[in-house]
Predict the structure.
Amino acid sequence: VNFELQPVTEPGRRYVALAESHVADLALWRVAHDKDGTFVAESIAALKGSGLLAANVPRELGGLGNTSIHDQMVALSRLGRGDGAVAIAANMHAIFVYFFARDWRAARAAGNAQAAEGLGELLSAIGRKEATYCFFFTEPGTDVMHPRAEVTRTDGGWLLNGHKSFVTLSEAATTTRASFKLVDDRGVAHLGMALFPIDRTGIEIKYNWDALGMRGSGSHDVVLHDVFVPEGDVVLLGEYGAYSEFFLVSAALSNLGLIACFLGVAEAARDEAVRLVTTRRTSGGKLLAESPAVQHTVAEMEIDLAVCRAMLARTGQAANAFLAAYAPGAAPMAEMHELNRDFQCTKWVVNRKAIEVVDKALQLSGGSGYLSRSVLSRLYRDVRAGPFMQPFSPNEAFQYIGKVTLGLDPRIE
Amino acid sequence: VNFELQPVTEPGRRYVALAESHVADLALWRVAHDKDGTFVAESIAALKGSGLLAANVPRELGGLGNTSIHDQMVALSRLGRGDGAVAIAANMHAIFVYFFARDWRAARAAGNAQAAEGLGELLSAIGRKEATYCFFFTEPGTDVMHPRAEVTRTDGGWLLNGHKSFVTLSEAATTTRASFKLVDDRGVAHLGMALFPIDRTGIEIKYNWDALGMRGSGSHDVVLHDVFVPEGDVVLLGEYGAYSEFFLVSAALSNLGLIACFLGVAEAARDEAVRLVTTRRTSGGKLLAESPAVQHTVAEMEIDLAVCRAMLARTGQAANAFLAAYAPGAAPMAEMHELNRDFQCTKWVVNRKAIEVVDKALQLSGGSGYLSRSVLSRLYRDVRAGPFMQPFSPNEAFQYIGKVTLGLDPRIE
Amino acid sequence: VNFELQPVTEPGRRYVALAESHVADLALWRVAHDKDGTFVAESIAALKGSGLLAANVPRELGGLGNTSIHDQMVALSRLGRGDGAVAIAANMHAIFVYFFARDWRAARAAGNAQAAEGLGELLSAIGRKEATYCFFFTEPGTDVMHPRAEVTRTDGGWLLNGHKSFVTLSEAATTTRASFKLVDDRGVAHLGMALFPIDRTGIEIKYNWDALGMRGSGSHDVVLHDVFVPEGDVVLLGEYGAYSEFFLVSAALSNLGLIACFLGVAEAARDEAVRLVTTRRTSGGKLLAESPAVQHTVAEMEIDLAVCRAMLARTGQAANAFLAAYAPGAAPMAEMHELNRDFQCTKWVVNRKAIEVVDKALQLSGGSGYLSRSVLSRLYRDVRAGPFMQPFSPNEAFQYIGKVTLGLDPRIE
Amino acid sequence: VNFELQPVTEPGRRYVALAESHVADLALWRVAHDKDGTFVAESIAALKGSGLLAANVPRELGGLGNTSIHDQMVALSRLGRGDGAVAIAANMHAIFVYFFARDWRAARAAGNAQAAEGLGELLSAIGRKEATYCFFFTEPGTDVMHPRAEVTRTDGGWLLNGHKSFVTLSEAATTTRASFKLVDDRGVAHLGMALFPIDRTGIEIKYNWDALGMRGSGSHDVVLHDVFVPEGDVVLLGEYGAYSEFFLVSAALSNLGLIACFLGVAEAARDEAVRLVTTRRTSGGKLLAESPAVQHTVAEMEIDLAVCRAMLARTGQAANAFLAAYAPGAAPMAEMHELNRDFQCTKWVVNRKAIEVVDKALQLSGGSGYLSRSVLSRLYRDVRAGPFMQPFSPNEAFQYIGKVTLGLDPRIE
């Protein structure tokens, strides 16, 4: 199976092998959580316990030392084979660790001891399996470039108010990062971010996640009431509503892991369908796999998976190359739009094809796949989450890709 | 909206208007049943109470006197806008009534008073809102042309044993029809059918329906233990496993109503999506509907619905013409294959496009459509039931259509 | 074949039968013209000679008396089976005759003897096989709502200058109608039209049609140098660049015949493919039709044709109903947009599916279909003309359909 | 443009750069040959003259020393941007040289001086720009695994009779290889091959290539009348009609270059479409590129190209790895089927998407793209050749992919 995603670095190989070792348990544990919509606590605990959530932590700080965003994508796709909800939760945390470690390496390379030390502490806490990260990012009724959550001045810092949604992993996180609008003293609006402990006063997790699929991901709403953010903890990431490295690179690469989770979901559906048709027989006694129509449908699935894998592999390699070529903050805007344009192509294709693969697996299952007890009916619900992930919605992605390709201003109308 | 399905007869217009009057209630009542998987009892009671379930009963026997299979299809599509589970349950019953009434008219036209009387009694019981029908048809692990349920000789009749599944409406039915294998004294295998009360000894409804969607349809498994079937109640419908009028015409036309239910599901999704984009605004304050990408997606949905409606209208009219041209039992085999081939084209397209319309409605909804409380997340689960309905699965339909078109023996391999 | 288009009126049946009688000759004669790009003169002469081009002329004025736009669509689809270039040329002329006859009936119904007489003369000339019509409509570099051809004042009328393209049938036409911009004395710009003989001074047919397909249609460029248009011959059809009955109804219904031509092209490809696979054998001696993959592809073609036929039938019937419901000039704007929206759905689907059917026929042909001598290679070139026909291009159609559906101003941006 | 194919070796970079230097001339020269169907002699002469046709010849024998099948694929895609007919002709020759050079390296590594010397002479003749190769392979009415051309015993060798078709490059070739059936003395049928000069007695090139597209490729029929093949020149490649390394590896990798040619054709169409929409304006004066619908269509093309490029890149790299892992004759059958299965996925996708990209470019062109003088109308004809290339036809490919995936006997029925 040459198209199957494979790690390209040695630490990545360990990361992927570790992910594979969890798949069977995740698939088992997911059943009850999917049914009652409760958080996949034991699965996340297992990933934490095995060190998988510390895979990006440098070896000297207690991790596997993975530096390949491509290989992290592969590892997440493997988790997705077991439980998509766990995989997207793991991605949420892992992307933080990836960028902390990247910044730590950059700080060390630049001789910036203070930054290196601070990041090193964050990474060590993860290496010691003490810290888990989530993100207060999405909000209802607006897009991620325009958060309505906003900070206002208070003594020694800011007070943050707002309403966040889809806060995956919120039940297990120790620490979170929030995005918000910050209007400075000159009236200029910025995109601001801050890290803080998730038990800080004023943070109300609503425990209300109840969705079509990904039911174990704990993606609750979170309401923020006058959450205090110390002055020094605020990071400004560029003009409010404008493209920046954060959106074009960091958000895109976070999403790369996400869409790999959906490849894993599709792969699980494909495996189940192949299992069914190679074990069940028609009323006439023939193996279903011997039917030309079944072979045709299996070929369609195989082609769709090949497309997904080829695009993910190429995009992951391009991401590795991009991150190697440019230090944080150093990439030209045009290059970042090219990277993001290519990523948006991959995202659209993989999310769509993953849905189609699951649909075809259901087609091969006969009516049994429609029953709640079938893994296929669960995968059908999970896989549809993919296209909702921002940025961009499918509606926006075509506009963005077209504009970048045509050399026009790529703002979404 | 010229493509919207419209009745073509006067009784049909009353049927459709009656169906429309139920839509809002069905949509309301479905919510709880969808959540806990319980049967839509009050919705079915309402359809019974209003006379909708007697629409095909001749006026002199207490019904609306509908004789148009096309118009019944339209009425079912309207029910599907409110609740797909109710619509497919109503179809199950209605198709029986339709053929009882057709046979009654044929018996009267042929001067067969005895047959007319017997059918008249069945119809009158429906007209009096006393009888509701379901069908013991599908079985796990085989197709509907090859039931494994089988009768064996006993005094004065037969004993029926078997295991049926997907018995929609079983909770509300008073009467059922079962399909089975009957091997006669010469060793020839036939497809047999019989009508009997659903409370007959030996019938065990398993109350185990728990599926991805259509959760309120009560489509339980039913186990048959030595159910007694009197000699005279058995009807033989042709050679076991062979094509017959029952499969090519009756089963196809039953399915015509079914796929219309899925059009209704898609129409409901489209309406909800249009409602969302014409009331919600972007972070910049523009109505979502003003976005070119939203307009493009809405156009795709509109085109898909136009395709479904055009095919259903044409197939419904062809079905009306076919039923008018041939008395029961009189249609040539080649004509029946043509009818069924055309129906299979329509079935495949409508089931597929209905799924795509719901998918696009989700796309337009942003993340909110993925929440359990969104009607779109319910429609996404319901609409996927369409392609499972036999005959034929999508895997088989292409083979069948191709063979009939090419003039080959149309048996499925 | 229940989905096949069939006439719904008695004169329409004669029209269609006449069209069918020409198919074999058209298919024969097309070969040489397709090769060298010359006009299909003998085919057009045959249609004229048989009275087909006078089918819409009232019986009392020498025609077949067809009044059904649906049935004309069916007749044109039949011509398309023989030669798409002839069919689109016949459509160009026939749509004129259709609207002349409709206006003649309206004038008679309204007791407008003068108008009836004028139109009666035009129709009689067609009935006597003397007049053939083409249209100076499309122009390079602009759309048909914004002609750059323009009239300027001169003694007793106007001088028309401009450059028209895609003037199908220009080699055989006796008379033409031109669209142009007319700025009145108050500076208001109108869309103007005028009928005049094609040999009027200043009309230069360029005889330069050389295209991928439809090579026999004689769709030359025409340059207009100070062509004199008498004052009384100018008809104003509404504000320049604005929607009007002309665009929303007449242009749409002209296009309905056009897209039916492409259905005919697709049907010819399907027939050829079926012929090939039911006569050729594999190296192993099996008929190609016995291959499951061939059956699958044939089923795909059959489904695509069913979709096209269902949509055309329904749109043709809707058009008949619309024309019956509203006298010329009497339809409300919203109704006209609904009609045109529905037509645009049909147009997009039929043009696209026709292309796909031809593509699949090629797929079934093996390499032999790629040779110039194969009818399939000709149909592949012809069928791609469909989406170019204005209004609207596929790029615009989605926008238009979306806007009308969403209740927005349907102007194209 | 990260998805664009790029060479991965240093000699490959020179190969690709050389190919790029020819593009403009090929595009210019193709016009006349496409019109009159004559062979692209000056283009092939230019490729020969520049050394491009010797790119796979080892440096010490006068070539560029390319050893990467991936990079050859990239170079051929570049030629395809200029003229698809030239590109497929170049592929025909280049794949011979590639395998000669591979065998030469293997022979040297194995210390087989005699084989190395013979192959070295062939390669030197190519390095000296003296020899050009074509292939007598395809035949009408059978597939390439079952040639009907056959050899019969004669003194000192064999007499070859048969009829070959699609013999691309036959006008320029000095040498050819023929496939044929050879029944040995025990009655066992083999697939045989032999190399011989193209001017050998009995070879009749029919000079009859006249096709929809690829009109300059000189892909004539060739009739073989008692062509003498010396005993020692016959190579047996396995059982007649059975899978072998020749079919699963060599034929697949020949096709890899072919499909890359069609990527080049699609890229040329995309570039032309982008040029048009970024220079033309609507009647209202706006650049076409500013239209949301145009941006949407451009995005669709970009996504399709990204898919093609990702799959080709991954398949090319897999091919490089396969050729590095296994010496000629050493690969296990199952591995070869996996390689070919993956290749068939890529082939199907790239051929189909290339067609769609050209179709969308036409859509963006408005009517001007349909004229014979438009490069897009030429690309539309050329690009459709892709799916005809054996093995396998699309009809067969799905069956093959499905069977290999399901672990069934992968013979085509």
Observations:
- The mean pLDDT of chain C is 96.
